[in-house]
Each structure stands twice: as structure tokens, then as C-alpha cells.
Write a structure and sequence with these properties.
alpha/beta, Rossmann fold, six-stranded mixed beta sheet, 6 strands, 35% helix, globular, oxidoreductase activity, BRAMP protein, Flavoprotein-like_sf, FMN_Rdtase-like_dom
Amino acid sequence: MSTPLSALALVCTLTPSPQDSSSDLIARQVLDALDGHGVTGEVVRVVDHDVKPGVLVDMGEGDAWPSIREKVLAADVLVLATPIWLGHPSSVAQRVLERLDGELSESDDEGRLLTYGKVAVVCVVGNEDGAHKVTADLFQALNDVGFTIPAGGGTYWNGEALQGTDYKDLEQTPEAVASTTATLAANTAHLARLLKAAQYPPS
């Protein structure tokens, strides 16, 4: 735990600040768990920023993505948090993935993607089914653009179907969610330190 690490949580709720958000809550819980392993964290609620549609790292005047991208590239760990809407990640999460697609055109002096050596984990909340599918979709996309997924790299909560209770409305975090988040944090910090000490080889 001697190597300090940093994490960035991109919260992909549809709800702008300062309103409460279940996705924001679970992302902060993950950051709190990571903090116990020497990982400092920051939260960015993406909907608060004018992230333009597109698949380039910079879509021009007024695009907020370049400044968010700087934070992504500066962090050792990316935490991507999304609600489930109609069985899928939010439109905000999809936009983040589309913008991360721009990383496929960027590389270091040895031909590696700039995201190589960075770890990504996923948090999903919703009161409809689909957490495993949403997690799988996000894992695949994040791996495609260069991130490494740790064992147990996803945590989630699904409420009862067709009911209105949200994660943020619970009186306490369910033990199953808390223990899953704790495992995620331990494995994430471990993997991030290994990769920071020994980067992937050039192609």
C-alpha cells in the first residue's frame, strides 16, 4: 500500500447536481472503500458538463470532454457509475464510452494506448433488472479502449422490479453490496499498483 494511487469516478446519472443521485452515492461508496487502500478519489457528475457527442478526444469549441479526459488520463483508476434505463446504461454513460473511443487514435512513444496500465471498475444501480448485462456491456467497452478490469470489478444494486425505491432511499447499504464493494476496492488497488510498477509491453 506504499504506492499512492488516484481514482476518478465518472457518474453517469441523468440527474444534475445538486440533486441526490443513487449512481453518485454508490460511486462515492466505492471511492470511500478505495481510500482504505491508499487511493484518493474525485467525482465528476458528467451531466453537469457540456460533453459534446462524437468519437474524438476534442469535439471543438465548448466541448467539456477534454478537461474531463485530462482527469481520466491522470488517474490510475476509472470508476464508471450508471443507472439502468430501459435495461441499458444511461445515455450519459453511452456518451462517455463514445468519447473514450477517441483513445483508440492516441498512443505513447512506444505505441501503447494512453489508457494501458489503468484500471476500470463499474457501479450499476436501478430498480429494474439488467445489472449483469449493463456491467458486461461496460466492461467490454472499457477493455476495448485500453482499460484493465480487475477480478470482481463490478458492484451493483437492483431494487424490486416495478417498484419506486431507489438505492439512495435505503436506510443502510445492504451487506451484499457492501461486501462486494469492499472486494472490488481491494482487488482494484492491488491490480492498479501492479500495473503502475510494471506497464504493459509495447506491441
